[in-house]
Amino acid sequence: MNGALLEQTFDLGGRPPVTKWLRFAQPIEQCYTQETAERRVKELRIAILLGLFIYNIYNISSIWLVPDIVDLAWILRIGVITPSTLLLVWAIGRISLEWTERLVTIGVFNGYLVPVFLFWLSRDPASLFTYAELPLTIIFANLLLALRFANAVVFTGSAYVVTLLAIATKGGLGYDLSLTFVLQISTVCFFALFANFRYERMRCENYLRTLSARLEAEMAKSDGLKFRDQSRTDDLTGLPNRRQLTEVLRGALSQRRSTAVLMVDVDHFKLYNDALGHPAGDACLQRIADAFARIAAADESAFCARFGGEEFTFVLQDRSEFEAARFARSVQETIEALRMPHPARGDGLDVVTVSVGVTWGGRDLSRDLDEMLVAADRALYEAKRRGRNCFAFDEGGFVPSAASA
């Protein structure tokens, strides 16, 4: 059992996960209750109904064992205990599990009082044999009902005291028989309560062991997902990295979907770094990445990744060539609109801009991943050759006019 893991997961405040009364610390108790309440209610209902059936069988034995008060025995068993027990069976699925445990404890103690009372009240010599019901009821409560340990202590202790009082005040027992009854009830109470303690301790240990294993598995899965996400995310920009780009592009091409790849490069970025320093260059890339992330988030068919260095890549799915061209123009214009100063470029522009290379493949065009990336990169160099701050299609692709785009 990983106590440190439980302490980390649940705010135990330094408390042990299980108290000396075999109750979980409150945060764990809430978790346990949520997970087991339905099963516990079902088990209690079955045990109570079975116990009630056996309990009423003793109505038959009352004819011979307590003939002097048989009518009272039947009234108590059938008229009082049976309907109250059936009411309890109905109620326990409709109240909290904590109150269910309390009411079951009260109910089984009330049921115990009847045979004790009949044993004490009857003056028929055969009434001594009703004493056999008492150990059976104690065993039933501790093992079959499996009262929670604290409740089992309360029930067993109360039953023990009531039984001793009945033995002490029942007339005609004699010293030897009274001592025998006391020894029997003492032994039964001790063994039944000890068995309940072992069962409850095992229940708690098994749950904590299962819970700890489940938490470890969940944390391992979470760490694995986190590691996987980190391995597929660019550290500087937070965009997906080239590895994730490859997965997305390969998936799109395998589905034979119309796919466009846009290779984007920051114009004169080396000059920017040389003039302002690498920290400023990183900040520039981060700002551009943020703009690209917003573009991709606004378009469910667009995916953006950092390809490497100052290069970024968009993947568009289910788009025509004309739509890919419009998208490339919007990417270019979005970065220019940021108006990030670029003091080192010598082409007359004083802001950061990007060049975009576009390649497109229709559903009926079979192109693999490498071919798409090479074609997009080739188109990017064409855009640079044209003077940068523009976009170009790969040779052989559809090249719309500036007016139409």
TrEMBL record:
Record lineage: Bacteria, Pseudomonadati, Pseudomonadota, Alphaproteobacteria, Hyphomicrobiales
Protein name per Swiss-Prot or TrEMBL: diguanylate cyclase
The reaction(s) this protein catalyses: 2 GTP = 3',3'-c-di-GMP + 2 diphosphate
Keyword Cell membrane: no
Species of the source: Fulvimarina endophytica
PANTHER family membership: DIGUANYLATE CYCLASE DGCM-RELATED (PTHR45138:SF9), REGULATORY COMPONENTS OF SENSORY TRANSDUCTION SYSTEM (PTHR45138)
GO MF annotations, alphabetized: diguanylate cyclase activity
Sorted UniProt keywords: Membrane, Transmembrane, Transmembrane helix
Membrane found in the keyword field: yes
Cited SUPFAM superfamilies: Nucleotide cyclase (SSF55073)
GO cellular component, one term: plasma membrane
Gene Ontology process terms (BP): cell adhesion involved in single-species biofilm formation; negative regulation of bacterial-type flagellum-dependent cell motility
TM region positions: 46-66, 72-91, 103-122, 128-145, 152-169, 181-199
Superkingdom: Bacteria
Residue intervals of the GGDEF domain: 257-396
EC numbers for this chain: 2.7.7.65
InterPro entries: Diguanylate_Cyclase (IPR050469), GGDEF_dom (IPR000160), Nucleotide_cyclase (IPR029787), Rev_trsase/Diguanyl_cyclase (IPR043128)
